[in-house]
Amino acid sequence: MTDRTTYVTLTGVRRRGWTDSMVRDLLGTPDVQGRDPRRWSLAPVRLYLLVRVETVERTAEFAAASLLSKARSVAAGVYAERRRAAVLSAIRAEPIEVPLLPGPELERRAVRHRHLLGGLSPGGSRDQLTRWQVGYLRHALSRYESLLDGLYGETGRGDAERLLRRRLYEAIAAAYPALARECRRRIAVER
To answer: What digits encode the pLDDT tens for the residues 22-34?
Structure first.
């Protein structure tokens, strides 16, 4: 059994500002490695002597590796922000072409689309039909979601999705003034 006060886990080392490559290069193999008896997991538990970790943290090699890691992190953040700005400007500049259909054809397609989704209830109201029409047109415009390619995680993805949805609903409202109220409602709900 190991004393918890003299060892630190890999997660604990990471919390102290270490990256995986810094652990590999500066600490090397763990001082204790095995399975955690408290959890059933195939992942090994890696423990490092706290004294050894603190000693390495005072070296020039650690300081240099830490600065390099922070510089890489900043550079990655700058790149991600540039990518986010580029995607947002592409979404703003992209012309959105809403398919223009006669009223009865749009209603027929919207009802069929809703039926295919499995949510058709007989005898729907006019508001329900309006919601279905906006939903169908929104689905018909899903090809514009390819503008979001390249945005992963939280780096601007949410902003880009909200901007794209808002632009799509605004385009639907402009093409079909009778659906404008429902489009405004959806924009307000999705904020």
So the answer is: 999 999 889 888 7
